[in-house]
């Protein structure tokens, strides 16, 4: 299992506006590490650098001890599964949405991923409950169920690294708790970076990094951070 480290990473999208300022943190192999902070702090930017949508100005990002600038983009991205905040689904079956873009998965593999994400009973349903052939019918998936489809799609890739980018932010708090417990289960043996703007969302993380304006300003467990406040 690969760990992830950011070492003194500086970055901006435009050269006259720096976003990350010499940022360092570590997600040891198999751990769950959280990044919390207000909107605009640079959390999603960290995810984009890890996935190599952009390269840092300075510093290094390592996966499994290796600078990601030195590995092929394909092998890097193969190792990372992203669960985004909002999931846009095709109006085709849940099964189709889970398998989309994956390399001809077997029916058993798709069913296993669906089961792990607790969406298996919906596998033949249409996300929008609408079939253009026969007119309206069936179930319309809720926001939480859609996130379960996204989780299943990510699990089908079986990535050793999970990036949860505000994966529950768009949900009501009850649904958020349900999805969090699923995410906790599926991330158990993976290196996980969980991005959130609320501390309560990632209370179970092994380590929480609090971000502000492109810097990590505090680190600790949930209990430690609450005690300091
Ligand atoms: P967070 O995820 O913590 O809300 P982001 O990483 O999305 O923060 O954004 C950090 C800063 O980078 C913000 O000021 C935002 O406006 C800016 N930013 C984000 N994406 C881009 C982009 N593609 N081009 C230019 N600036 C961007
Ligand atoms: P695959 O590469 O096999 O499709 P993923 O589903 O994990 O596996 O692919 C990465 C995903 O990252 C894309 O499907 C896309 O939805 C998502 N993505 C694209 N741009 C961004 C972004 N700026 N931030 C976070 N996630 C993104």
TrEMBL record:
It is found in: Cell membrane. Residues 4-229 form the ABC transporter domain. Keywords: ATP-binding, Membrane, Nucleotide-binding, Transmembrane, Transmembrane helix, Transport. One of its GO terms (cellular component) is plasma membrane. One of its GO terms (molecular function) is ATP binding. Its main location: membrane. This is ATP-binding cassette domain-containing protein. It comes from Aurantiacibacter rhizosphaerae. The lineage of its organism: Bacteria, Pseudomonadati, Pseudomonadota, Alphaproteobacteria, Sphingomonadales.
């Amino acid at each position: 299992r690969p760990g992830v480290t950011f070492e003194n990473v500086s970055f901006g999208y435009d050269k006259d506006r720096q976003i990350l300022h010499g940022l360092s943190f570590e997600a040891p192999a198999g751990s769950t590490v959280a990044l919390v902070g207000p909107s605009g702090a640079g959390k999603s930017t960290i995810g984009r650098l890890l996935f190599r949508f952009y390269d840092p100005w300075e510093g290094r990002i390592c996966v499994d001890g290796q600078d990601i600038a030195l590995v092929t983009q394909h092998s890097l991205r193969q190792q990372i599964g992203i669960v985004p905040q909002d999931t846009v689904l095709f109006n085709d079956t849940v099964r189709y949405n889970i398998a989309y873009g994956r390399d001809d998965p077997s029916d058993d593999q798709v069913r296993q991923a669906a089961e792990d994400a607790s969406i298996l009973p919906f596998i033949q349903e249409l996300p929008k409950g609408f079939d253009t052939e026969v007119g309206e019918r069936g179930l319309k998936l809720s926001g939480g169920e859609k996130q379960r489809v996204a989780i299943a799609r990510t699990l089908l890739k079986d990535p050793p690294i999970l990036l949860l980018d505000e994966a529950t932010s768009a949900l009501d708090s009850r649904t958020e708790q349900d999805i969090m417990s699923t995410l906790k289960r599926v991330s158990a043996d993976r290196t996980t970076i969980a991005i959130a703007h609320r501390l309560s969302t990632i209370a179970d993380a092994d380590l929480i990094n609090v971000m502000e304006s492109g810097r990590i300003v505090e680190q600790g467990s949930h209990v430690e951070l609450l005690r300091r406040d």
